[in-house]
């Protein structure tokens, strides 16, 4: 088990959350998956190991992980939500054909946040940047 998964499980225990085998499996899948899976994809991947687990179980656990600040929910257009266990500051580039999402790092856009505050009087709490294009696989077809 990766130290990242272990750290996340320890955090949950500190917050009084019982670590069920399903929770462990969902968290591990999310942290090891670089593909920003949907709840359905998580469910389908884990269902052979947990035949009694429902999609609702996956959703409820994802919601709990989001509330604990361990997972981000990504909503783009009317596609179903995708989930990202990387809560560091990073950005996404999204394929307009297949919906694949890739992470990329860029120096933080805090200057943009400061300028927005200055120009609008808002107190900015965060931002999200998405770029859209066509991935390598879809370009080849």
Describe this structure in words.
By secondary structure, the protein is of the alpha+beta class. It has 2 domains: 3-84, Winged helix-like DNA-binding domain superfamily/Winged helix DNA-binding domain (Arc Repressor Mutant, subunit A); 91-139, Ferric-uptake regulator, C-terminal dimerisarion domain (Dna Ligase, domain 1). Helices cover 43% and strands 13% of the residues. It has 6 helices and 5 strands; from the N terminus they run ααααββββαβα. The protein has a 3-stranded mixed sheet, with no helix packed on it. Strands 1-2 form a two-stranded antiparallel ribbon. β1 (72-74) and β2 (82-84) form a beta hairpin. α1 packs across α2 and α3 packs across α4 (55-67). The termini are far apart. It is found in: Cytoplasm. Fe cation binds at residues 110, 127. One of its GO terms (molecular function) is DNA-binding transcription factor activity.
How far the N terminus sits from the C terminus, by CA atoms, comes to 38 Å
Strand arrangement, largest sheet?
4-3-5
CATH class bucket of the largest domain: Mainly Alpha
**Number of individual domains:** 2
Question: Which CATH architecture of the largest domain would you pick?
Answer: Orthogonal Bundle
Overall mean confidence score, pLDDT: 88
| Oligomeric state of this protein | single chain
Helix content: 40-55%
Supply the CATH superfamily name of the largest domain: Winged helix-like DNA-binding domain superfamily/Winged helix DNA-binding domain
Characterize the largest beta sheet: strand count, sense, and whether it forms a barrel.
Answer: 3 strands, mixed
What's the gyration radius in Å? 17 Å
Class by alpha and beta content: alpha+beta
Q: What is the number of helical segments per DSSP (H or I, 4+ residues)? A: 6
């Amino acid at each position: 088990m990766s130290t990242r998964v272990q750290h996340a499980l320890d955090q949950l225990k500190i917050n009084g959350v019982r670590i069920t085998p399903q929770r462990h499996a969902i968290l591990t899948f999310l942290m090891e998956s670089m593909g920003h899976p949907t709840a359905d994809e998580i469910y389908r991947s884990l269902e052979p190991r947990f035949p009694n687990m429902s999609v609702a179980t996956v959703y409820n656990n994802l919601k709990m992980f989001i509330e604990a600040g361990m997972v981000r929910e990504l909503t783009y257009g009317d596609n179903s939500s995708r989930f990202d266990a990387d809560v560091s500051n990073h950005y996404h580039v999204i394929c307009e054909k297949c919906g694949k999402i890739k992470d990329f790092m860029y120096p933080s856009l805090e200057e943009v946040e400061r300028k927005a505050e200055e120009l609008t009087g808002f107190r900015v709490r965060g931002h999200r940047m998405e770029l859209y294009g066509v991935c390598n696989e879809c370009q080849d077809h």
